[in-house]
Amino acid sequence: MSIYARIEECKVMELLETDGDITQMFHPSLIWVEVPEGVPVEQNWVCVDGAFSAPAPIIPTEEELKATALSTRNLLLSAANEATAGVADAYIAGILNEADTARFKLYAAYKLSLNKITQQPGFPVSINWPEIPD
Question: What is the pTM of this model?
Fold first, then answer.
């Protein structure tokens, strides 16, 4: 049994394992290359002159990293805001008990840290995310 890779523009589009004659099974315009035994080829691999290689890793741009980081930050801020909804007025009025006051202050510090991630050295490549309060 042989494994064949269908190639389009030097890219593996699909794999087929068969005992049949690949040249008789498909239209001649399709390009099929036999995969050497033991080569772990996958879809999207590159094939040039019958040699297979894994695709180059996709490295996000700094703008893409920044957009992802800000989106994550905004989701975390939204969850933190939900966790403290309505508590700010009670804190200002001084009617929270000691445990609720401590929890509110932890969340306030957390939200401030989230808003300052853009000021961290190395942002957006390296981010030290603050811990979510318990």
Answer: 0.63
